[in-house]
Design a protein that fits this description.
With 282 residues, this protein is α+β, with helices and mostly antiparallel strands. Helix content is 49%, strand content 14%.
Length: 282
């Protein structure tokens, strides 16, 4: 399998081939805002960083951390070291993972299972890190006769291994975040479908608008308004994928104006809600 050096090219290959792809990255292609992909993502940090905002949770990134992100979760890496940002990112087409799962072994579990105690982050020990890298090297180095079968079977073995780690991860407390910022994030998520504003959030916490904007940006690397939009777009994608009409979706997600919804959706997803709805239903 080709090992990509561009995250965008890797995601493009994953979606076009309805398969999976691997990218080994050393630096940012460009500064990315909160974004959402139409594929699952496994993010393995080699060099570490500062913080990862995924959906409604903040995580500290250290070497050996692994994150699992589904296609509806907005995410953003902030405060990265300016010199190095080495990581391995696996993009997975959701329907492909569903197809290779069985009634007894659901390889989608770590991407579908979400409750209040769920953690996207798994801290791999040295042995687990070596095991992960072993599978990656096996997948990308195979060639010649039978290479497609080895690549395919090695990926399945990797996903079984990571799913087991995700199940074990539910019993430990492994993420840290600032309590005040987490309370603000929780409040936004509880009220994201309402007419929520920076002022209403600040009033709820008896803080000034300038202060709450400053601490949120420092902690997450993004603004409150951008986070609200990303959460609404994430909800919209999920609803569209489940067959809801566009008119119903933008109201349900807190967009009172269709043109604003259309503009925000196309900017975040890359296609119009109509095209996304048609694609996801096929």
């Amino acid at each position: 399998m080709k090992e990509f050096t561009s995250c965008k090219e890797s995601i493009k290959s994953c979606i076009e081939n309805k398969y999976f792809s691997i990218a080994h990255l050393h630096s940012e292609e460009e500064t990315m805002a909160i974004h959402i992909h139409d594929c699952y993502e496994i993010y393995y940090s080699i060099s570490g960083g500062k913080q990862f905002l995924i959906d409604n949770k903040l995580y500290t990134i250290t070497p050996g951390n692994l994150f699992v992100i589904n296609q509806f979760e907005g995410h953003y890496v902030s405060q990265i070291s300016k010199t190095t940002h080495e990581r391995i990112v696996i993009s997975i087409y959701p329907d492909f993972l569903k197809a290779i799962s069985t009634n007894k072994t659901d390889l989608n579990y770590c991407f579908k299972h979400r409750d209040n105690n769920f953690r996207h982050k798994i801290e791999l020990n040295k042995e687990q890190q070596s095991r992960f890298i072993y599978f990656i090297n096996k997948i990308i180095s195979t060639e010649g006769f039978g290479s497609d079968i080895i690549e395919y079977s090695s990926f399945i073995e990797l996903m079984v291994y990571l799913t087991k780690l995700s199940l074990a991860n539910e019993d430990s407390s492994i993420y840290k975040y600032n309590n005040q910022i987490q309370e603000i994030i929780n409040y936004i998520n509880d009220n994201v479908t309402e007419n929520i504003t920076v002022k209403s959030i600040a009033d709820n916490f008896f803080l000034s608008e300038s202060y709450i904007c400053r601490i949120f940006k420092l902690a997450t690397g993004t603004t409150i308004n951008k986070y609200i939009i990303a959460r609404r777009i994430s909800m919209a994608k999920a609803l569209l994928s489940n067959g809801f009409s566009i008119n119903d979706v933008y109201f349900k997600c807190g967009f009172n104006d269709y043109s604003n919804f259309l503009k925000s959706f196309k900017k975040a997803v890359g296609v119009s809600p109509k095209k996304y709805s048609t694609f996801s239903m096929n």
